[in-house]
Amino acid sequence: MLGKLFKHEWIAISKLLVVIHGFILIFAILSRLFFEVSGGIEVVMAAGSNNITGIIAAMIIFVLVLFIFCAAMFTSVYIAYRFYKNVFTDQGYLTNTLPVTPAQIIISKGLTALLWTIIDLVVLGASLLILFANGEFMSVLLPALGQLFTYLNTLPAFCWILLIMILLSPFLMIIHMYFCVAVGSLVPNHKILGAIGVYIIKNNIFYRSTI
Fold first, then answer.
1. pLDDT tens digit at each of 211 positions of the chain
2. Whole-angstrom Cα distance, residue 120 to residue 114?
3. Among 16, 23, 24, residue whose Cα is nearest residue 125
4. What is the C-alpha to C-alpha distance for residues 93 and 176, in angstroms, rounded to an integer?
5. Domain segments of the chain: what residues?
6. Phi-psi region of 189 (alpha: psi -120 to 50; beta: other; left: phi over 0)
7. Burial letters for 124-142: b for 16+ Cβ neighbours within 10 Å, e otherwise?
8. d(CA 196, CA 112)
């Protein structure tokens, strides 16, 4: 049953997110084609604001970065909203009547959210590479990655702990959002505002504790 829950959640959440991330990739590809037709990204960027091509290039980069930021924010908010809608609204009544355990519901939604968070990071990173990467950049990047993997064996324990925390950050972010939605749902008539309030308070406490 967990597999069916995951499949249903994956299809439901992917309908919109595939379109958004596909649009960003297409925009990045078309932007790169514009740069190549205009003589290459180095030539276009060197022109600056001296001609119309440089102005258009600056606008394209700004729009792409804006799209990437908005897509990342929307993905996180949409994941949290899906959890809220499917569990704590009238639709949640139908969800809770399914012959599954609460743990299976949370696992199916959490796994879907985790995969889409990873896909989100990969797509957004790929969009930047499509736009900015060139032969010189890749000739520096690939050896640097090779050296990085070589140095991993010599890292101290603290660095390994930090690396593990970074790798777990998407999972922890999802747990954080689900926690805020669950606690916020205890506020009568203002569940969404309650979740936002819990998110702000929790982040404020975490920030102050790290000072």
1. 777 888 888 898 999 999 999 999 999 898 888 877 776 666 656 655 566 777 777 788 888 889 888 988 898 889 888 888 888 877 777 777 777 787 888 888 888 988 998 898 899 889 888 887 776 666 777 777 777 767 767 777 777 777 787 778 888 888 888 888 888 888 887 888 888 888 888 878 777 766 5
2. 10
3. 24
4. 23
5. 2-134, 155-211
6. left
7. beebeebbeeeeeeeeeee
8. 22
Tokens of 38: 């205009």
Token code pair at residue 72: 């990342």
Angle at CA of residue 176, ends 171 and 181, nearest 5°:
130
User: What CA–CA distance (Å, rounded) separates 130 from 32?
Assistant: 7
Between 157-184 and 102-132, two packed helices, what is the crossing angle to 10 degrees?
120
Amino acid occupying residue 59: M
Distance from C-alpha of 107 to C-alpha of 2, rounded to nearest angstrom: 8
Global confidence as pTM: 0.77
CA–CA distances in Å: residue 84 to residues 80, 100, 121, 129, 197: 6, 18, 23, 34, 15
